[in-house]
Every structure is written in C-alpha cells, then in structure tokens.
C-alpha cells in the first residue's frame, strides 16, 4: 500500500470530472443501439463476495475502480470502471474471447486512443491497457470505446461513448457505454447482471458508481 500511495501522491482522483457540454452531443450515427433493457440475471457465484458491500480499495479485490494516466507526481485517475467481465478462461485467453465478441459486432481493435493504466494488486504496479476496441478507429464523429485489463482471471472494463475526436476528445457518456456492453454480450448469450457491484466511483456526466457483471456461461 505504501508503494501505491507514493505513486498516486497528490494526484488523487482530481482528474475525474466532466467534459463541458458533452452530455448534449449526439450519439455516433453507427452506434450499437443500447435502447431497451436486457434480461437481468443473478450475479454468478464467483461474484458473490463483491456484490454485498461497496468496493472502495483496489487492494481488496481483483477489480479496478479507475484507470489512470501517468503524471509528474505519480498517477491520476481518468475514468471509472463500469463493467466487470468473467470469461470462462482467464488471462490473455479471456481477453481474446471478449475481444472476439466485439470484433464480431464490427468493432476494431487497438483504435486511436490515449494510453491508460490500471493498478495490479498482485505486482503492486500500474499496468498498461491490455485489450482495447472501439466502433471506429479514429472516432471522428464519436464512437463507443472500451479498455480492458485482466487481473486474477477477472476483467475490469471501462466502457464509454466518446465525443467527436476534434477539436478536443472527451467522454460524452459512461452510461451508454455500459448499456452497449450489456446488450452486445446478452445477445451473444452471456449472463448479464446490470449494476451489480458498487465501486463507489461516481463520475460526471452520468456514471452512478455501479458496475455491471457479465459472465460467460459455461
């Protein structure tokens, strides 16, 4: 813990906030339609320890609460995790399985994006994003976009909708990103438990601090 406190230092969570006016921007025209609700399933047994009480410390569980960017003082939180995915296989195989679902949906991997990091409690290090995908490579007109990390067989996903790439890139909605993941994976037969884990990472413009759990059915 002391190592991480030194890395974070005064950077804290000050970087998490609102993109001015972003909530008023339209969705990208080719966005996966997240309208409607998915059939909510009970969280899987392996998530049982995470659904009863809020998670407020990234050293308590394999689940991330935020991803970060490096600064001169350490690391600064930039966006909240809002989806937890439990693929049948762990590690790189699990990430590839998740990415394959998005590629089948027409998404592209490794799009133009900022590099972000997440905290790995087992190595006590910040780890570079391990798998990313978006609806389009550049997001000129906006897009849905995800970043993923796999720690201890559990994938923390940050899902959001981007503003148009120019003049300044930002986030217009975390909610639409989360709902898009719910719909895509539910349509593929994965078990979806919306808003099941309380990460206490509420962030403007529209993230309520809750993460959806998505599990690959055995």
Automatic annotation (TrEMBL):
InterPro entries per record: TAT_signal
Highest rank taxon of the organism: Archaea
Acidic residues bias spans: 49-61
Region described as Disordered: 19-61
Protein name: Uncharacterized protein
Species name: Natrinema thermotolerans
